[in-house]
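Table S2 (continued). Query chain:
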Amino acid sequence: MTSAPSLRIFLDFDSTLTVHDTIGALSSLAPAPPPPPPHHQSAQGIPSAPDVPFSTFTDSYLADLAAHKQSYHGPPADDARASSALAAETAYLASLRPIEEASLARLEAAGWFRGWTTSAVADGARTAVAKGDVVLRPGWLDLKRDVQRLQRMGEAGGGGAGTEAGGVLMVIVSVNWSRTWVRQCINAAGKAALTTATGAGAGIRAGSKRRIDVGKKEAEGRGRQGRGESSVDVSDGIQIIANEIEGLDMPDGSSGKIIGCGTLQGERVLVSADKKRILDTFKNQSPPGDARCTTVYVGDSMTDFECLLDVDVDVGIVIRDEEVRAGQRELAEALDRVRVTVRWIGEYDPDDAEGVGRRVWWARDFEEIRRALLTRSEGIGWD
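Corresponding output:
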């Protein structure tokens, strides 16, 4: 029987683990399509021709979202009570489910994913990494290396990887349409960096010279460990909980439907509350007795809102770029509305009683997160 890990890291994928959202790159994959169906208008009002531009779906989604914001009348927030403001925020986020469902229905009706295969998704991930469309944030490879080291320590203690006390559980929780895509992107970007001893590599570039230098250091370090490491499954030891394109492994390829995950009994991961429900499934995996388990959640947008503020999350971390993006700004404004102070992760001190109460922090990349959590936390780091 295995015991629970001493450190649990949950993180979002798009624009958190990656520098940019990857849905556009995923949507641009072009495996051999099936014979095109006759051109006609679907029930959702979108032509079913396979060559309909993806911007059509984006425009429809944004129009639905704007109309919903205009007409939404949820529970009012009492300005005197942060708890009331929090309830108002979560109610609005839950109300977005029909918008997300309608967007996927349009894609399914148009047959956008029909005929896709696992190999096509893997090839597309490698191409996206090579083109720079999928880029992992600096520090990720070193953080993953440290996590794997702790997981091996757990195995040596007699438990499964990352499950023995003293080990680490790492889980990606994403609203992305395909967990196969998520895993293949991590592998492709990681392997590109492992075999690139010069420059930031195809998967760890960033927008500032400081972070590019961090990426070079990572790539050089991986290069010194030998070319044989490039064949390693970089995503090994990471649980990925996300949606999936149905039937990628079938002989004729995908049915074109987006299906949910087993963690939610087949329901799709679409909104903030879904991620919160996933997080809740891990709460019964607490360490026995007085053993201490630190839970970390890293995200960048409103789909991460409820997880970041969950009472059982010890360290909530929001990703913020030097040029704050729309999703990051929206999350920052929501946190401000519920009166949550967000401090830089460089100020994090696990022994600071005042800091313990302030569970939300911001970081530019995983190098900052790793330094704060793994090199300065007693009993976790090894510098």
